[in-house]
Amino acid sequence: TFGSLPSKKPAAPHQQSIPGQAGIFHIPLDVSQTTIVFGQSGFDRKDPDYVTGYLLNEIMGGGGLFSSRLMRKIRVERGLTYGVSTSFFPLDYASVLSGSFATAAEHTDEVIALVRGEWQEMASNGPTAEELELAKVHMIGSFPLRFESTWSTAAGLLSLQMNGFSKEYIMGGRQKLIEGVTLKDAKRVANRLF
Questions:
Q1: Which of 76, 154, 158, 189 has its CA 20 to 30 A from that of 27?
Q2: The pTM is what?
Q3: Which residue has the higher pLDDT, 68 or 169?
Q4: Is 50's pLDDT higher than 70?
Q5: Predicted confidence band at 68 (pLDDT cuts at 50, 70, 90)?
Q6: Helix (H) or strand (E) holding 88
Q7: To which H or E segment does residue 87 belong?
């Protein structure tokens, strides 16, 4: 099926940083809910800290899991949103760590402060051993679910090939990389990423 596709993608000119000025930008709308989208630079796929950063994203808010810090602090403990999640995107020309949530307009500033507080806490202290272990188990255990259908298998294999991974990566290399992340690594990288 993919035999006629080129074996290599064109070379990128160089990595780009996220453009624009940092800050909070309000766009007033006449609605009762406020939607917040936030982001910052992430790690390139070739960065030696990429896997650790991906685990840290999982801990912070990866996919809106109820075990994530942001979901626990903002939804479970305070009921201020139906969901909050973060995503780690290693794109061709830039890498992004982004997130989003919606909340009642009167709680906007409170939830932004909670997100910033968790960001700072992660930067200062990193994850706990329990959080790191749970993230590893989830990342390893959920990986086969990416290959449930013909479409998802083709998309997953294409993505891996486009990012330069061999079949050894699927057959255990990925798991070894994840299992090899130590708490010390996670704390160091959390300070760098957050």
A1: 76
A2: 0.84
A3: 68
A4: yes
A5: very high
A6: strand 84-90
A7: strand 84-90
